[in-house]
Structure formats: C-alpha cells, structure tokens
Specification:
Structural class: alpha+beta
CATH topology of the largest domain: Ubiquitin Conjugating Enzyme
Number of strands: 14
Helix content: 25-40%
CATH class of the largest domain: Alpha Beta
Shape: elongated
Strand content: 15-25%
Mean pLDDT: 79
CATH superfamily of the largest domain: Ubiquitin Conjugating Enzyme
C-alpha cells in the first residue's frame, strides 16, 4: 500500500480536496490568533447572543458571559464537541460573512477548503437607525422584525448582520420581492419612531470593518471602529472635517470646505476616491487600511494659522532628522523655529547645462536646492527650485530652476514626508528619478532618451528609462520612475 504524507498543521490543502474540519485546538494555535480575533470582534453579550442564535446554539446551554476570551474559549470548545450543527466551520463562516475584509478569517477558510455562502450575501439590507439602547435591546428589534415578517408570511431568509452604535442591520437573502412590504410594515406598525433604510436588490450583504485609520491634513491620525462597509466615503471626509471644527482649512460657519479622500494602498501609493457617494466596500477598503482626507482645493485662499504652524513644525522635524541621518548633506533654513525656506546642499552625479546647443552635457557634482513652503502650505504643495548652476534635467526648468514632480502636482497630499522629498531631490540629481516624456527641458529630455544619454546615465549610477512595448521586447524593462512611497 502506498503511504501518503500526513497533512501538516496550517498547510493549505491541495485543490480539489474536501473541506477539512476545524478543531478547538486549531483556534488555539498560533498564539490563539483565531480565538482572540473572534473575542475582539464579538466582545459584548448582545453581539454574541445574535451570532450564536443564528448558529442554533441553545441559550440554556451557553456559559455565562464574563471576559470575552474566556466566554468564547468555552463556546468554541462546546461547538467543537457538537453542541451545534456544522461545527466550528459554521461559526467561522458566520464571522467571516460579518467581516469579509478580515484576512485572518478569509485565509483560514481558504486553508481548510471551506467555501463561504457567497450567493447568500446578495440580497437586500435593512438598516434600522436611531433606536435607544436604554429602552430597546437588539433582541427586541429582531423580535419586531420577525413579527412583521411572520405577519406577511415571510418565513426564514432573514439574518442578523451586525449591530453597532445605534444601527442594527438585517439581511434578506430570500423573499427579496417582499422587502418593500416588510419595510412598510416595520415603519407603520412595528417601528414607527425609527428610521429604516433599504438597499437596492442584489446588494452585497453589509458587514463591519473592525477598524480603519484616517489621516487629516495635518497628519493627525484617527481610528474608526466597527464601521459599516456601506458607509459612503463622503461621510468619512465630513466626520474628519467635523473633528477639526473651525480649524479646518477654509471652514466658514457650520459649513466646512468640501473634502477629497485618498486610499493608501498596500503598495504605498495613494488612489483618489473619485465618487464621494460610493461606499467603503465599493472602493475595496479593508480592515486596517488607511485613508487620507484633505481639502478639496489644492490652492488655499485661507489657511488656518494653527494647522499651518503645526505643519511647519512637522516639516522642520522631518528635515532635521533627514540631516542627522545624512551628515554629508548641509541644510540651512530661514528661521530657527518655523522655517518656510530650506536650502539643501549636496553632491551627486548630475549633468550641467551645455554652454551651447548640441554640445554634450558635462558632469556637475555640486548642487544647491531650495524648498519653499509658500503661504498656502500645507494645502498647497511646496515649491522646489534648483539654485544656479541649474542642472541639465528633463524635469528642471533650465531658466528658473523650477522642479516639476508628480508628488508636488496632481499626486500631492498635505502629509507628504519632507525627508522623502529630500531623498527624491537627490535622486533627481543622480538621474534615478526622471520622466523623459513629460519635460520642462525638452533638450534634456531628448538627450536622456538617446542611446548616448542612456549610456551616460547608467554609467554614473542612474536608471534607464522604461522601454516602449513596440521596441525590442527582448530587453529588460525597468519599473516606472517618479514614485514616492506614501507613509
């Protein structure tokens, strides 16, 4: 008989294999990561009750709810022993459906070849808002929903999704053609004093994101906990603006300036949310993600002096730390406490502007660059200028020395790390950062794209430009340049 290798704990099953059973010991592995996550997300008796009711766990058999971790440890032990149908797999499917953006749940289900009921998450969401926890419990609300459903002959297919703050969300994955009648019954008979909203048919089942982080224009950091994935992005921007109140840039009375929201991707780049009415789910926001909220205008007509001073202090600290890490680079400023101008003096393998047209550029190793934080900063981007002698570079104006970088234009955000900007300036001098197809100096762009220019750039430590797809595909393609990792 051929001997097979035993499955190692935590190792993914081969494709096509049947689901593997999850045991209580699996929940305790890896420093009981799964158990800790469940206890963190379902950390009060009401949340636990609704989840266990959905699993068919007899209330009389449940342990008392003391500390969440102790409660869930005993509950999972009993479920693993068979007190409910479906075992711990059913529990994990339920919690994963409530938090589909949770990577730990998702990866565990995948590792054990357990499929979630993706089709059951398409239907209609009913959001019940404005109830007072002092007079109504979650059980009371669910009882009223079930009473209204029974009166309409709706049996089954109504599930509790989540409860957070003063919102309770239920999901109809069956009888969706009766949802409007159910909504009308709830509003007129069962819950006339509450606000009830219904999503469109075929919607994603709503769920909670346990936490997301949001940065304001001064890099102040905020955490949103247990936030519905159906939350419009505009609500995130408005909430942050309200936190700043009168100090929000351009605020007037009770109406703060409109906001723009960016999503910080796992790759470190930012993506502008172009439709403010779209939801967190629509924009692929997941647990632990970071968003950035800024004012809508990139040119400020008014900057609150508190926010500007805080930004100037942040910049001074970042540039000072950069100077301490790079003692060979000399840094001067125009003010000891709140500088608005910095001069960065450094050596790098740059190229000098030719004395006459059609002459080849000669090496230039000494550089002096000015960073100017103009009056609109931090809402407006800083200006960067090469002091004379100006270098020969596609993205540096030969007359004024003005430097054009994407991160100071359409991709600018007020929280730009100035230490990263200093590093980018040095990379510009070394031709490790340039865009030869969008130029302030066309002659430098043509030289940089020429065969001779590319040879010189690579020889002195710069990077070759990406090769066009219609050119020699057998040659190595470089990653696009002019990218700064956002922190």
């Amino acid at each position: 008989m051929q001997q097979t290798n035993p499955q190692q704990p935590g190792e993914p099953l081969p494709q096509g294999q049947p689901p593997q059973r999850i045991t209580h010991a699996d929940l305790l592995s890896n420093n009981q990561a799964l158990l800790n996550q469940i206890a963190t997300l379902f950390d009060n008796p009401n949340h636990a009750t609704l989840l266990l009711d959905a699993l068919g766990y007899n209330r009389a058999m449940r342990p008392p709810f003391t500390e969440p971790i102790h409660f869930w440890n005993e509950v999972c032990r009993q479920i693993g022993n068979g007190i409910t149908t479906g075992g711990l797999e059913a529990l994990l499917i339920r919690v994963s459906e409530s938090f589909p953006g949770n990577a730990l749940f998702r990866n565990t289900l995948s590792r054990y070849n357990i499929e979630t009921r993706a089709d059951a998450r398409k239907g209609i969401n009913l959001h019940i808002d404005g109830w007072d926890a002092a007079t109504l419990t979650q059980d009371d609300l669910m009882a009223r929903v079930n009473t209204a459903a029974a009166a309409l002959g709706i049996t089954g297919g109504i599930e509790f999704s989540y409860c957070t703050g003063n919102r309770l969300s239920v999901f109809l994955h069956e009888h969706t053609d009766r949802a409007a009648a159910l909504l009308d019954r709830l509003q007129t008979t069962e819950m006339p004093d509450l606000v009830i909203n219904m999503s469109s048919p075929g919607s994603q089942r709503d769920y909670l994101l346990s936490r997301i982080y949001v940065e304001g224009p001064d890099m102040g950091r905020f955490q949103f906990s247990n936030i519905p994935a159906s939350t419009p992005v505009r609500d995130i921007g408005n909430s942050i603006a309200n936190e700043y109140g009168a100090t929000w840039p351009g605020a007037s009375g009770n109406t703060p300036r409109a906001t723009v929201v960016d999503h910080l991707t796992p790759q470190g780049t930012t993506e502008r949310v172009k439709k403010p009415d779209s939801t967190l789910h629509d924009n692929h926001i997941q647990d632990g993600d970071t968003m950035q909220v800024n004012t809508e205008s990139t040119v400020a007509s008014y900057i609150n002096p508190i926010i500007r001073d805080q930004a100037l202090v942040r910049v001074r600290i970042e540039i000072e730390e950069f100077g301490e890490e790079n003692p060979a680079i000399k840094i001067e400023r125009n003010n000891p406490t709140l500088p608005t101008q910095y001069w960065i003096k450094f050596t790098a393998n740059g190229r000098a502007i030719p004395q006459r047209k059609n002459l080849l550029p000669m090496p230039q190793t000494e550089h002096l660059v000015c960073i100017w934080l103009e009056p609109g900063f931090p809402v407006s981007a800083p200006f960067v200028y090469w002091e004379k002698p100006v270098i020969f570079h596609p993205n540096v104006n030969a007359e004024t020395g003005y430097v054009c970088l994407g991160e100071l234009k359409d991709r600018y955000r007020p929280g730009l790390d100035m230490a990263n900007l200093c590093r980018t300036i040095i990379d510009v001098a070394n031709y490790r950062n340039y865009e030869a197809n969008s130029c302030l100096n066309d002659e430098a762009g043509a030289w940089a794209k020429s065969e001779q220019g590319q040879a010189e750039i690579v020889k002195y430590g710069g990077k070759a430009i990406p090769i066009n797809d219609d050119e020699e595909n057998r040659q190595k393609k470089w990653s696009p340049q002019l990218q700064i990792k956002k922190i």
